[in-house]
Design brief:
Blueprint lengths: L5 E8 L5 H17 L3 E4 L6 H10 L1 E4 L14 E3 L7 H8 L4 E3 L3 H15 L3 E5 L5 H7 L7 E4 L2 H6 L8 E5 L5 H14 L13 H13 L5 E5 L5 H12 L4 E5 L15 E6 L5 H12 L3 E8 L11 H9 L4
Parallel strand pairs: 1-11, 1-12, 2-3, 2-4, 4-5, 6-7, 6-8, 9-10, 9-11
Helix pairs in contact: 8-9
Length: 326
């Protein structure tokens, strides 16, 4: 017999690592195996402290800019993060004769290519995204200043004054709220009917799937936890989605030790999801923390199946097979 209160946990599926994050982490791991430490990484490879600390312990050195890499290590590999970089970054690496590997998520690269294609066709570009986010900085840096205008909100979309209203194209950050973005797109399309929009949604499959899973689970539970980092855009959007779907106690935690237990007093049901850069080990850690206080029953709420994988750079591929990743 136990005197612990009962707690039903609904575990969102899909959750956690997406194919782009998985690929980026593999690139750092395999580069360390092939070239040895140090391997430099420009910006956090993905937005998760646990992942970054784990790679740092293996010999990865994280820098924000290439000029932080000391001259003595100029031959060490440098890896660009999954969020993508401005065109000036590989140009600087080439100018300094650095050997670099690009871990940009292929779905972010797709947005970069779209923006470049629209610019070649003479269009000005509207980017829906969050100012200062590394992905937005990278996308805006694909073209000369002034070619891409950032729109963050519906109000921005209503106030936006383009140079030529009949010659516009739209791209978006890949990790946005699907609902928020749809509202902004509606405003832009109503104001500028000829605006060119992506053939296929720029918001990535993983962001969309994780938001749909939270939308399904949130109305069924007393509280919702999203495992992820505060600087992870897709994780923060999951918290917002949970709140909007009717779960008033929707919170972000990085680790089990961050849980504010006062928020979960008296609950009988809990939903758990994880941002696309949060490893499953941290989800299990959170479940274990609740199991220490409650008699838990875990069920998985499946809303989509994911079987997408992205190729890693050819130079690391033989090692990938040998390591059993393939």
């Amino acid at each position: 017999m136990t005197d612990k209160p009962k707690l039903d946990i609904l575990l969102c599926a899909p959750r956690g690592f997406c194919a782009g994050v998985d690929r980026a982490i593999q690139i750092v791991d395999l580069a360390l195996k092939k070239y040895g430490a140090p391997v430099y990484v420009r910006h956090e490879i993905v937005h998760n402290k646990y992942v970054v600390d784990g790679l740092r312990a293996k010999g990865a050195v994280f820098v924000e800019e290439l000029d932080e890499i000391p001259e003595k290590d100029i031959d060490a590999p440098v890896i660009f993060s999954a969020h993508g970089v401005a065109r000036s970054v590989p140009a600087e690496a080439k100018a300094r004769n650095m050997f670099y590997l690009d871990a940009t998520c292929p779905l972010v690269t797709k947005v970069h290519v779209e923006a470049q294609r629209h610019a070649e066709d003479g269009r000005d570009i509207v980017l829906i995204g969050h100012k200062g986010h590394p992905e937005v900085i990278g996308t805006m840096g694909q073209l000369p200043p002034g070619k891409i205008s950032l729109v963050e909100t519906v109000d921005d979309a209503e106030a936006f004054t383009p140079r030529d209203p009949n010659n516009l194209a739209l791209v978006t950050q890949t990790t946005l709220s699907v609902d928020d973005t749809s509202a902004i797109v509606l405003v832009l399309k109503s104001r500028f009917p000829s605006i060119a929009v992506p053939h296929k949604e720029d918001i990535c499959y993983a962001t969309t799937n994780r938001q749909e899973a939270v939308k399904k689970v949130a109305p069924q539970v007393d509280a919702m936890i999203v495992v992820g980092a505060p600087n992870s855009s897709n994780s923060m959007r999951l918290v917002e989605v949970g709140e909007r779907a009717g779960c008033k106690v929707s919170v972000l935690v990085q680790r089990a030790k961050d849980i504010d237990w006062t928020l979960f007093e008296g609950i009988s049901s809990l939903g758990i999801s994880a941002g696309a850069s949060a490893p499953e080990a941290l989800v299990e850690e959170v479940i274990d923390a609740f199991a220490a206080r409650f008699e838990v029953n875990v069920e998985i709420a499946v809303t989509a199946e994911e079987n997408i994988a992205f190729n890693i750079p050819r130079i690391l591929r033989e090692l990938e097979v040998a390591s059993g990743h393939a």
